[in-house]
Amino acid sequence: MKKIVLLSTFVFVKSIVFAQQLAISKINAPNLAGERMLTFDCPLDGNAPKDIKVFVIYSDNKEALLTGRDNPQGRATVRINSDDRSRLSCTFYFPHADHMDPNFITKDELNGDFNLSENDKREKYAAALLLKNSGQPYGEFTDKRQRSFYNPTKVYFKIARVGPNGEIRSSIHEFIMPRLFIIGYIGDSFTAGEGAPYSGHDKWDDNLCHRSNKSGGMRAINQLKQSHREVGIRVINTTCSGAKIGHLTFDPQHKSRANVPLYGNINNGQNSTKFSQLELIDNWCKKNDREVVDIILMGIGGNNIGFADMAKAAMNPIRDPRTWEQDALDAIEEAKNLLNTLPGKYDTLDSVMRNQDFEVSKILIMNYPNMFYGKNGKICDGFNNTPGWCLDPANFLFTHRVAFKDIHHKLNDEVGKAAQRNNWDVIRVSGINNHGMCNCEKPYFNTWSASIINQGDENGSVHPNSDGYKELYKENVYNALTSAVTEAQKMDREKKIAKARMDAKAELREKNQRQIDAEIVRKKLMEKYKREIEAKLKSEELLEKVKKATTTLPVKQENQKPAKVKDTDKDPKRGDDSKYKEDDSK
Q1: How far, in Å, CA of 256 to CA of 208, rounded?
Q2: pLDDT (0 to 100) of residue 198
Q3: pLDDT band at 312 (very low <50, low <70, confident <90, very high)
Q4: DSSP secondary structure letters along 128-174
Q5: Quick count: other Cβ atoms within 10 Å of Cβ 434?
Q6: Is a pLDDT exceeding 90 seen at residue 234?
Q7: Which are the contacts of 198, defined by CB distance < 8 A and separation ≥ 6?
């Protein structure tokens, strides 16, 4: 089983410290998209590993964790630290929708054997899940009062070590639980699961689109979810049988049925009657406040050249035999011409995906499976059929097998070229499988009659059946998804690092600007102060001058006799003043 490589990155975990505490170290809390795994080192303090248990107690309410009981908790798995045997390396998984009981202690660990590899633990956990509601021979599920966190939420946790000397707890730590890892699943009938209905009355998850969890893509995604409890995954499945590339980008596939109550009002109107497949994903992202779709998984292009319709029509035994041959030849010629339109349509699809309101990290495209080889690897030629359900007349596949096989090859060739041009990853499901249309002992594909029997219509013809999706798609798609999760998380880490650097630079620029602004203010204040000082000095100088001027002015003395008038002071016009005195006396 291929393992997702979790990319550890530095996470700032804030601690709330109290008195005598358990001193845990090397805390690595969830940080990247979808991560739900917590690791840390716990000291033994002289205890034997088999004598202690390590629990994680958590909540999104700090006060509840400080004072309350009945908080969610689970027991961590442990192993002896190879670098420091006085400490245990501990692993704990926070519950999420696909794994509400993710913490499982194997019987080996319960018995004090901590030498199991991570793969062994993973396999025993998977086996335990299958027997969860019956006798449990593999170990013990330890989660109690589980809580899951979907949106970025602040989570508080503390560690409790229980041993012979009682219980000791760590300080409280906190981190932001990252968002779920998001996969958008889009495409046509080979992607939706046409040909693999459920048994019983309700054959499809979506009756209009013939969407089934038995499709190759959904089988792989469900395997990914089940085998990787350390990653919380959310899938948005908008696949639809009959879809062309335009139905992924701009055109609602079933627009004509938008006003039909049976179809137009389901899912609150969020369906193929009103929106394209990418618009449905965009609507979901906006509703749930998401800005990134980590992986787009798709399969598309066959309906743009009439690939499946061409085969279905030719295989139908009730067609008019007078026109059957010519219809087949016309369909082949039309498909050849339409192949030339695929490059432009694929490039438009890439442009639309890259310019959505949500950001896409990785794009994977599945090519189309090979249905041309029967038992023992022989090409289906009408003579190597084996007994079974596939004995209906499939003259088109036999008579025109070379032309049909050539179109299939060119279609997959265009898928590969589009992937190379647009930096997509190709998932190849097109290898020779010996279980094609003419292997009736163990077929991986539906003939016309098999489709009528299994799903009540001919739409499943030439599509894989349930075994085909499982055998041809599941493992290939699972391996590709596993690698893509690691790459997408790496991209998420690089974005976080880049953002942290940008934030640091912005903070530094802001700090520098604050310093510059402060210096400008300081200079202005200094200039103002200088002007005020100068004005004050000038005022004081002027006052001093006034003072000096006033001290040099003559001062009138009291009782001072008036000065005698000199002769020169007499008025010449009056002459001698005595005669005037005489006259005055008279």
Answers
A1: 12
A2: 92
A3: low
A4: HHHTTTS--SSEEE--BS-----SSEEEEEEEEEEETTEEEEBPEEE
A5: 14
A6: yes
A7: 204, 212, 214
Q: Are 251 and 233 in contact (CB under 8 A)?
A: no
In whole angstroms, give the CA distance from residue 102 to residue 37.
10
- What's residue 11's pLDDT? 47
**Residue 231, CA distances (Å) to 5, 181, 303 in order:** 11, 7, 34
Residues 415, 301: contact at Cβ < 8 Å?
yes
pLDDT (0 to 100) of residue 16: 47
Per the structure block, which two tokens stand in for 15?
């601690």
pLDDT digits (tens, 9 = 90+) for 125-166: 888 888 876 666 788 899 999 999 887 899 999 999 999 989
Span 280-298, pLDDT tens digits: 999 999 999 999 999 999 9
3-state secondary structure of 564: coil
CB-based contacts of 9, cutoff 8 Å, min separation 6:
31, 32, 493, 496, 497
The CA-based diameter of the chain, rounded to the nearest angstrom, is 179
Which residue's entry shows tokens 């008279």?
Answer: 586
Single-letter amino acid, residue 452? I
DSSP for 395-433 reads: HHHHHTHHHHHHHHHHHHHHHHHHHHHHTPEEE---S--
Separation CA 296–CA 413 (nearest Å): 20
